[in-house]
Amino acid sequence: xxxxxxxxxxxxxxxxxxxxxxxxxxxxxxxxxxxxxxxxxxxxxxxxxxxxxxxxxxxxxxxxxxxxxxxxxxxxxxxxxxxxxxxxxxxxxxxxxxxxxxxxxxxxxxxxxxxxxxxxxxxxxxxxxxxxxxxxxxxxxxxxxxxxxxxxxxxxxxxxxxxxxxxxxxxxxxxxxxxxxxxxxxxxxxxxxxxxxxxxxxxxxxxxxxxxxxxxxxxxxxxxxxxxxxxxxxxxxxxxxxxxxxxxxxxxxxxxxxxxxxxxxxxxxxxxxxxxxxxxxxxx
Length: 284
Ligand SMILES: C[S@@+](CC[C@H](N)C(=O)[O-])C[C@H]1O[C@@H](n2cnc3c(N)ncnc32)[C@H](O)[C@@H]1O
Prior knowledge:
Elements: H1 3-11, E1 14-18, H2 21-26, E2 33-38, E3 50-52, E4 65-67, H3 71-94, E5 95-105, H4 110-120, E6 123-131, E7 148-155, H5 167-172, E8 190-192, H6 213-223, E9 229-232, H7 239-247, E10 250-255, H8 258-282
Helix pairs in contact: 1-8, 3-4, 6-7
C-alpha cells in the first residue's frame, strides 16, 4: 500500500461518489453523520423566460404576463422546491442532534430553504450573512452589486438543543481579514470574508460557485469536533470535503457532474500528497 493510501486509512476516511445526492444519502442509516455542509444548486442560472406579451393588459403591469418558454421552465420552480424538500428531509434523518447543519443560499433559494427547514423540523440556530467585500461589480448597471450570501446554521434536535457550539473559541478568535470581528468579542452573524481563493485552491481549475476554504474553516472551528463524520451532498470542487479532512473529520460527499467530481478528486489527492511530503520532510 502506498504511503498516500496508508495516510488516508490512518488519519481519516473519505468517500466521494459520482452520484445524485438524494440517491447517495438514502443508503446511510439514520443519524449516521454528525454534521452536514450543504452548498446546493441555487437555481440562479435558470433559463426561465418570462416575457411580456405584446397584447398584454394586466392591471398594474401594463399588460398580461405570458410564459413564452416551454412547460419545463414552469416545472423547474416546482421541481426545485421538491428537490430541496427531498434533501432537507434526508438531512433531518441523517444528522445527529449533537451536531449541526450549514446551508448556503442566495436570494434565489434562501426563502425556500428557510421555510422548508422549519416545516421539516430543523431549528434555525442563526442566519449568517457572508459579506463579500470584494464582490464582482454588477455589469448591467440595472441592479445593486450582489455582495452577500445567506447561510443557515441549523440543528435536528428541535427544542432539546444538544448541538455543539464552541462559544469560547468563537469569542476569542481573531481573523486578520475580518473587519467586523474583534478579538474577545462575540462572533456576530455578519462574516466579512473576501471571496478570493489562494493559488493552491484553484491549482487544478475552479468551479463557478467554489467557496473559499476559510469560510468553511470558520464553520468547523465553531461547531465541529475532530473525528466527526461530515456529509457534503453537493461536493462541487471539494472545498467542504478538504476543509473537513484537514480538520480531522471523516468526510463523505456526492457530486453529479463528472468534471467537478474529477476536480474534487484531484484536489483531495493533492492534499494527501502534500501531507505525505510534510511527513517525509519532518522524518528527515
Ligand atoms: C453550489 S455547487 C457546490 C460548490 C462547492 N461548494 C465548491 O466549493 O466547489 C453545487 C454542486 O452540486 C452539484 N449537483 C447538482 N445537483 C446535484 C445532485 N442531484 N446530486 C449531487 N450533486 C449535484 C453541481 O454539479 C454543483 O457542482
